[in-house]
């Protein structure tokens, strides 16, 4: 195995790092709490105003105006900021007080916080206090155990427990758990201000697995839960002739695409290359240079040609002619643009940055080579400095890395690639800095093709599925991460324009591909993405603006047999599925899967994660498994939501690189995006095994023709349905024929499973049918037809 190459990075501090600093104006401004000078004249008695008070803007000319406002008896806050007409301060005043201030000549502007807003906040707080008082008056809270499991990882045994308390909105409620004679406190998990449940943020190690645990609340509630095994028995390694370990170093996108091209050529009967239609922008930039030392006198130039096509050969210089009353002028000599600065009568440079910009842009010979701009939209009224700069695109990849637009490809693997078999999509490196993820893709493709002849299990997968693997969704960003800025997350497309189009911002350009999709996007009001072009989670100027995102959508549309997908990310050891986004107001998520669909996600996940576990015993924690918004955060516009809600594709997110236990320090260590290759290799191996587990799930789904079977039970809370597999149940309670439009069994709550169906007193006729994940309907009943072979039962409540 080749030794990994370690590349050191020197992160240069931009010359103009201080340019973004804003001068603190009116630093000596005092208010009523600390005025150091008495206002002139006699203070004016304040108005006794009984109207509701609110916060309003008042604009005065200067510091003395603020003191006059205080002297007038106004309740001036500590807020003050310079505006075009003077100083804006905020004043607490009712309607009568506002009119009095206007009569005294003060410029009273808009309302900052209206009286009704203050009243609403007070009412909200009082309601919360009443709610908490009501909770405190109860004898005890109710505890609902969501998960109680043990698992093995890194040779040790751990316990994971998740519990919801009915008093969860009271942040003072504390839950503790007793395990083997020891007591632990669970962490309260809240997101967007909403209580979700209590959990261990890190699983606790145990020497002996308990049969059950007891959870106690400070509010008096108590419950006992059985402890189950999280992942099944680790599977033995594949057959004796099963080959693994096909990667031996981190590979940039050019390498991984050369690898899958070679594989497809070597195995033409089993694989082919699918070219995706939308070319990327390319690993390229226009060359730039910046001249100046403070914001006001700074300008920068950008080449018209790409850097590698001549932009990097250009030079811009500003010269002090050294003579009095010299005019501003621009000349071009080959690749050099020279600006002779205008001078005053004493021979000092007098041309401003804005004037230099205009001169360059209006000189035809110069503007044919480059465009000039002031720094971040500044007026550029400072006198330009003399300097000389070579333009550069600041890209350091070797010449072997193409600068041209990149054609993203998928390797399609299967003995029957005609769309008749269940399709599975695995895709990696939406985020450029995640170097392990393309290795997972390459290793998986190699395993499928090289083990096909000698391994029966592999043959079943290749013969029974239509597999698509994209090793690098974001090749431009990937190249940039490898050769320029290793923490690059986004692609390389610059949507910033004049706001952040300067070279100091160039390492922050790009769009987060996993925030650029059309479902649950920032543009629809969902949170977890940004509209700021230099943000790490910039979602782009519009939904699906980026070719990388459109390529994924095109593939699922071109091949509608794709029913499963895995988005391979790193790091953190998470395993997640939709919904992945919510609206902040009320933490309102995208529609949750039905309880049956949710249980199918869980069941399939156990199988996939057991396959991960089989490589070296690494367990993805149950507390890091589940819908994105339940275990991590809201990620507006992500690809898994796109595929699930638009196409019904069961889609997951791997976050490879689970934390590693350090027995000497007694703590969990994170691995990062680019761990030493020895660790990266192990991650690639175990999560490639996880993809094989996904293919097994997909094949079982594609061959499933057996209808599910359910039974009905009446409990104190209503009717519940037990089933032989994960199902969605439709029912009626009025004796009518159930259809797909009939009510569905809903979830009892986050991570809680199906809720009982309430029934009233007396006799109720329950008619229902169930549907499994493969679409098989119980009793082979046709809900859209006219048959009567649905399930039925009668329950009586005294």
Protein described:
The protein is an alpha+beta fold. The chain folds into five domains: 17-117, no CATH class; 143-229, Immunoglobulin-like (Sandwich); 253-279 and 405-495 and 510-523 and 552-702, Aminopeptidase (3-Layer(aba) Sandwich); 286-390; 710-797, no CATH class. The chain has 14 helices and 38 strands. The strands form ten sheets. It has an eight-stranded mixed β-sheet, with helices on both faces. Strands 5, 6, 9, 10, 11 and 14 form a six-stranded mixed β-sheet that branches. It has a four-stranded antiparallel β-sheet with strand order 2-3-1-4. Helix 7 packs across helix 14 and helix 10 packs parallel to helix 13 (639-647). GO terms for molecular function: metallocarboxypeptidase activity; zinc ion binding. InterPro entries: GH29D-like_dom, Peptidase_M14. Residues 1-34 form the signal peptide. One of its GO terms (cellular component) is extracellular space.
Our count of helices gives: 14
Annotated CATH architecture of the largest domain: 3-Layer(aba) Sandwich
Structural class: alpha+beta
Helix fraction? Answer: 10-25%
Report the sheet-strand fraction. 25-35%
How many strand units? 38
CATH classification class of the largest domain: Alpha Beta
Lateral strand order in the biggest sheet: 15-23-25-24-26-31-27-30
Runs in which pLDDT lies below 50 for 5 or more consecutive residues are: 1-41
Distance between the amino and carboxyl termini: 73 Å
Quick check: average pLDDT? 89
What is the third-level CATH name, the topology of the largest domain? Aminopeptidase
Largest sheet: 8 strands, mixed
Overall morphology: globular
State the domain count. Answer: 5
What would CATH call the homologous superfamily of the largest domain? Zn peptidases
Task: Provide the gyration radius in Å.
Answer: 33 Å
Protein name: Chitobiase/beta-hexosaminidase-like protein
InterPro entries: GH29D-like_dom, Peptidase_M14
Cofactor: Zn(2+)
GO molecular function, one term: zinc ion binding
């Amino acid at each position: 195995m080749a030794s990994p190459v370690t590349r050191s990075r020197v992160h240069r501090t931009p010359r103009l790092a201080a340019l973004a600093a804003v001068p603190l104006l009116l630093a000596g401004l005092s208010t009523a709490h600390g005025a150091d000078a008495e206002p002139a004249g006699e203070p004016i008695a304040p108005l006794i105003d009984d109207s509701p008070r609110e916060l309003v803007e008042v604009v005065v000319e200067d510091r003395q105006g603020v003191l006059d406002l205080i002297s007038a008896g106004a309740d001036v806050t500590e807020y003050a900021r310079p505006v075009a007409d003077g100083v804006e301060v905020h004043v607490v005043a009712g309607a009568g007080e506002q009119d009095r201030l206007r009569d005294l000549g003060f410029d009273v502007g808009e309302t900052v916080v209206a009286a009704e807003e203050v009243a609403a906040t007070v009412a909200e707080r009082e309601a919360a206090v009443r709610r908490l008082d009501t909770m405190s008056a109860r004898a005890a809270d109710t505890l609902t155990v969501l998960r109680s499991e043990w698992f093995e990882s890194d040779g040790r045994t751990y316990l994971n427990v998740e519990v919801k308390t009915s008093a969860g909105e009271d942040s003072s409620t504390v839950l503790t758990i007793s395990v083997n004679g020891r007591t632990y406190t669970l962490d309260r998990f809240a997101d967007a201000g909403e209580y979700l449940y209590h959990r261990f943020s890190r699983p606790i190690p145990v020497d002996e697995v308990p049969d059950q645990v007891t959870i106690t609340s400070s509010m008096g509630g108590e419950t006992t839960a059985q402890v189950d095994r999280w992942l099944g028995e680790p599977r033995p390694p594949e057959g004796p002739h099963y080959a693994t370990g096909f990667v031996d170093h981190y590979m940039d996108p050019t390498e991984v695409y050369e690898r899958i091209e070679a594989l497809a050529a070597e195995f033409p009967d089993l694989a082919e290359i699918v070219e995706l239609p939308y070319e990327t922008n390319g690993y390229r930039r226009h060359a730039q240079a910046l001249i100046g030392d403070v914001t006001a006198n700074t300008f920068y130039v950008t080449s018209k040609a790409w850097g590698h096509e001549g932009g990097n050969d250009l030079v811009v210089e500003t010269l002090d002619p050294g003579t009095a009353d010299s005019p501003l002028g621009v000349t071009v000599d080959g690749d050099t643009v020279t600006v002779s600065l205008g001078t005053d009568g004493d021979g000092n440079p007098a041309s401003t940055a804005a004037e230099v910009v205009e001169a360059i842009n209006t000189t035809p010979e110069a503007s044919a080579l480059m465009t000039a701009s002031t720094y971040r939209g500044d007026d550029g009224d400072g006198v330009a400095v003399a300097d000389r700069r070579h333009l550069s695109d600041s890209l350091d990849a070797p010449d072997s890395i193409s600068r041209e637009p990149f054609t993203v490809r998928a390797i399609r693997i299967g003995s029957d690639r005609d769309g008749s078999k269940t399709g599975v999509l695995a895709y990696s490196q939406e985020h450029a800095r995640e170097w392990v993820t393309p290795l997972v893709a390459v290793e998986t493709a190699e395993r499928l093709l090289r083990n096909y002849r000698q391994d029966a299990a592999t043959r079943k997968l290749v013969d029974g599925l239509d597999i698509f693997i994209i090793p690098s969704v974001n090749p431009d960003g990937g190249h940039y991460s490898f050769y320029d800025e290793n923490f690059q997350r986004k692609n390389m497309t610059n949507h910033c324009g004049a706001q952040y189009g300067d070279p100091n911002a160039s390492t922050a350009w790009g769009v987060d591909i996993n925030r650029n999709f059309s479902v649950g996007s920032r543009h629809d009001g969902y949170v977890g993405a940004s509209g700021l072009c230099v943000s790490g989670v910039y979602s782009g100027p519009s939904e699906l603006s980026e070719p990388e995102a459109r390529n994924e959508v095109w593939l699922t549309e071109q091949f509608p047999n794709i029913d499963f997908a895995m988005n391979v990310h790193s790091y953190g050891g998470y395993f997640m599925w939709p919904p992945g986004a919510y609206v902040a107001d009320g933490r309102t998520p995208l529609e949750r899967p039905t309880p049956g669909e949710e249980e199918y996600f869980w069941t399939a996940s156990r199988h996939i994660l057991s396959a991960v576990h089989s490589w070296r015993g690494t367990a993805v924690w149950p507390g890091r498994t589940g819908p994105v918004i339940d275990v991590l955060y809201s990620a507006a516009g992500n690809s898994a939501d796109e595929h699930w809600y638009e196409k019904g594709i069961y889609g997951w997110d791997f976050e490879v690189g689970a934390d590693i236990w350090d027995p000497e320090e007694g703590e969990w260590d994170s691995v990062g995006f680019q761990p030493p290759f020895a660790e990266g290799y192990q991650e690639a191996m175990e999560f490639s095994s996880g993809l094989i587990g996904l293919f097994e799930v997909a094949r079982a789904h594609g061959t499933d023709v057996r209808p599910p079977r359910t039974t009905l039970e009446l409990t104190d809370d209503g009717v519940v349905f037990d089933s032989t597999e994960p199902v969605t149940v439709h029912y009626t309670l009025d004796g009518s024929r159930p259809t797909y439009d009939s009510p569905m069994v809903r979830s009892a709550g986050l991570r809680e499973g199906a809720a009982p169906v309430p029934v009233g007193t007396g006799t109720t006729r329950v008619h229902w049918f169930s549907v499994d994940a493969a679409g098989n309907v119980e009793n082979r009943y046709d809900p859209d037809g006219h048959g009567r072979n649905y399930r039925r039962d009668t329950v009586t409540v005294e």
